[in-house]
Specification:
single chain; 442 residues; alpha+beta; Aminoglycoside 3'-phosphotransferase, Chain: A, domain 2; four-stranded antiparallel beta sheet; 12 helices; 31% helix
Length: 442
C-alpha cells in the first residue's frame, strides 16, 4: 500500500462551521431529482461508521451531517453537494467506484457512502452563500451518492467561491477524482488515494506509453506526493462506449485494444507491476459472503432458482480454483466499466482510460468482469462476439466462462431484495439478472 503524503497524515480537522473553501465547491446535479434522500443519507453515514464517531468526539453534531440542498437551476433540480475546504483534502471513497469492489464500495448500481476521513486545512475560509441549509453549519467535506442503474446523467461543476461556474465537466458516476479539461491535456486531482491510486495510474500510463503507445493517455507530469496528488495527461478524442449500441466495428476495436494490452507488454515488465487490489480471491470471498447471508429473495421462482444454482456453484471447488492463475499475468484496469472504453470516430479505434485501480492481474478475471459488468445494461454489447475476437486459448476461455458466472452472481446478489442497490432497482431488475445467471449456469 502506498502511504499518504506526509502533509495529509493524521489530519482530522473536521470542524463544525467550516464552510469556507479555497474558492471551489464541487456540486453534483442530477436531472429531475435529488441524488440522495434523507433516509438513505442517514443510513449511508451510519454504514460508513462516521456519524457516531464524530458526534461523540464533539467535532460535528448529527444535524450537521444531514443532506444540504442546492437550489435548482435551469430545471436541473435539487442537488447533493460535496464542499472541499483548502487545497489538500481526501474525500474518502475507500473502495472502487464501480464493479463489485474490493473494499466495500458497491459500484455503479448502488454507490455506497463516500465520506471524508481527513481534511487538510490550508487556507482561511471564504464565504459561500446560498449553498447550505440556513439552520445547519456543514462539515468540511461530506458527500454520499447512491446511483441506481440507468440513472447516471448528472453533471459535475467546479464553482468559485462567488458562485460563478469555473469549469463544467460531465461524469457518469461518483468519482474519486476531479478533472480539469484543457484543450490538449487533462488534469486529474485525486480526492481519494488511500490505495495508492495516483501511483497506480502514473505507473500504468508510463508503462503503456513505452510498450503500447496510443492505447491510453500519454503521461505529461505528476505531483504524486502533493495533497491532493495530481496527474496531467494528454486529452484523448472520442466518446465512451457505455450506454451505446456498440457496433460490430467497435466490438472488434475493443478486442484489438485488449489484445494489444495483454500481449505487447513483456512478461518481465509485468512481474514488476504492483498487483491489482481487486483480484479473484477478493471477488470470490465477497460473493460467498453475500450468499452466506441467505438473503430473502421473495417468491419469484426464477430468482430462487438462480440463487440455488449460484449457491451450489459457490460451494464447489471451482471458485477456489479460480483464485490460482496458471497463466502469465497481464496489466489490467481492474475495472470492467464500459465507460473506460473510448471510441475514436476519426481513427476508428478504442482507447482505454481511468487506470487508477490498475495493476498486475489475471487476464480471464479482467475479461469476465468486462463481459458481466452491470454497465452493460445501459447499452448493447455482444459479449460473445467480443470474446470471439480476443485471442484466447481453450484454458483461458474456460476460466473466462467461470469468472463470468462469478460476476453475474455477484451482481445478482447485490441487486436482490437484501442487496445494497435494492431501493433504486427499476422494476424487473432482479428478475432480468436472475435470467442472466441461469443462462450462464445452463
Amino acid at each position: 500500500m502506498i502511504a499518504l503524503p506526509a502533509s495529509c497524515q493524521g489530519r482530522t480537522n473536521l470542524r463544525r462551521g467550516d464552510r469556507g473553501l479555497d474558492g471551489r465547491t464541487l456540486i453534483l446535479y442530477q436531472r429531475g431529482q435529488m441524488l440522495v434522500d434523507p433516509v438513505e443519507y442517514k443510513l449511508a453515514v451510519q454504514q460508513a461508521g462516521l456519524s457516531s464517531r464524530l458526534a461523540d468526539s464533539g467535532q460535528i453534531d448529527r444535524p450537521a451531517i444531514q443532506p444540504f440542498l442546492v437550489p435548482s437551476a435551469a430545471g436541473i433540480g435539487p442537488a447533493q453537494f460535496t464542499s472541499q475546504r483548502g487545497d489538500c483534502h481526501s474525500a474518502a471513497g475507500s473502495g472502487r467506484r464501480d464493479g463489485l469492489g474490493h473494499s466495500g464500495q458497491l459500484g455503479e448500481g448502488a454507490e455506497r457512502a463516500s465520506l471524508t476521513r481527513r481534511a487538510c486545512l490550508g487556507h482561511e475560509p471564504l464565504p459561500v452563500s446560498g449553498l447550505f441549509h440556513p439552520r445547519h453549519a456543514p462539515a468540511a467535506v461530506v458527500s454520499v451518492a447512491f446511483l441506481p442503474p440507468r440513472r447516471a446523467n448528472w453533471r459535475i461543476f467546479l464553482q468559485r467561491g462567488d458562485g460563478r461556474a469555473k469549469r463544467a465537466m460531465t461524469a457518469d458516476r461518483f468519482s474519486t477524482h476531479n478533472l480539469e479539461l484543457g484543450d490538449d491535456v487533462v488534469t486529474k486531482r485525486y480526492t481519494s488515494w488511500d490505495r495508492g491510486e495516483p501511483h497506480r495510474e502514473w505507473a500504468a500510463l508510463t508503462l503503456l506509453a513505452e510498450h503500447v503507445p496510443g492505447l491510453a493517455p500519454t503521461p505529461v507530469r505528476a505531483e504524486l506526493e502533493a495533497c491532493p496528488p495530481t496527474i496531467v495527461m494528454t486529452r484523448l478524442p472520442g466518446r465512451v462506449l457505455r450506454g451505446e449500441h456498440i457496433t460490430d466495428e467497435q466490438v472488434g476495436a475493443m478486442a484489438a485494444a485488449l489484445n494489444r494490452l495483454h500481449q505487447q507488454i513483456p512478461a518481465r515488465v509485468i512481474e514488476e507491476v504492483e498487483p491489482a487490489a481487486w483480484h479473484p480471491a477478493a471477488a470470490v470471498n465477497k460473493v460467498r459472503a453475500w450468499a452466506d447471508k441467505q438473503p430473502d429473495l421473495g417468491d419469484d421462482p426464477v430468482v430462487r432458482q438462480a440463487f440455488q444454482a449460484g449457491a451450489a456453484w459457490l460451494a464447489s471447488s471451482v471458485p477456489d480454483e479460480l483464485t490460482v492463475n496458471p497463466l502469465p499475468p497481464i496489466l489490467g484496469l481492474a475495472d470492467g466499466n464500459h465507460a473506460n472504453y473510448l471510441w475514436d470516430e476519426r481513427e476508428r479505434q478504442v482507447r482505454l482510460i481511468d487506470w487508477e485501480d490498475s495493476g498486475r492481474s489475471d487476464r480471464a478475471f479482467e475479461l469476465g468482469e468486462v463481459a458481466e459488468h452491470i454497465s452493460r445494461v445501459d447499452g448493447v454489447l455482444d459479449v460473445e462476439r467480443l470474446l470471439a475476437y480476443i485471442d484466447l486459448t481453450q484454458q483461458e476461455a474456460e476460466r473466462v466462462r467461470e469468472f463470468r458466472r462469478l460476476f453475474a452472481l455477484g451482481w445478482f446478489l447485490m441487486l436482490g431484495p437484501d442487496g445494497p442497490a435494492t431501493p433504486h432497482n427499476p422494476v424487473g431488475t432482479l428478475e432480468r439478472q436472475a435470467e442472466r445467471v441461469l443462462h450462464l449456469f445452463s
